[in-house]
Amino acid sequence: MDFSGLKNLLEDREKLSQLLKDDGFRKLIENPKVRELLRDESFIKAAQSKNIFKLVTNPAFQQIMQDNELRGILLQLNTSAGSI
Q1: Are the beta carbons of 40 and 60 closer than 8 angstroms?
Q2: What is the SS3 assignment for 58?
Q3: What contacts 69, CB < 8 A, 6 or more positions away?
Q4: Distance from C-alpha of 20 to C-alpha of 3, rounded to nearest angstrom
Q5: Prediction pTM value
Q6: Which sign does the torsion angle of CA 57, 69, 17, 80 carry?
Q7: pLDDT exceeds cutoff 80 at 34
Q8: Within its chain, how far is the Cα of 12 from the centroid?
Q9: Mean pLDDT of the region 28-51
Q10: What is the mean predicted confidence (pLDDT) over 47-66?
């Protein structure tokens, strides 16, 4: 999966502010699996260092990607990132 649109969105503060108002994004960040991932120090360090391999091989991230509902939200956010 290519999440470059989402990556670009997160780097733009104005667009990020708009994203925070999005119901899908709020649903995503309120999900217990996502909250667990965001508390995972190894995931945070991998994200900060932009280590894609460590991000996608993280067990909590893999659980999220196996969850059809969460994967759908991520894909929708990635698709709509260009329109925000």
Answers
A1: yes
A2: coil
A3: none
A4: 18
A5: 0.65
A6: positive
A7: yes
A8: 15
A9: 91
A10: 91
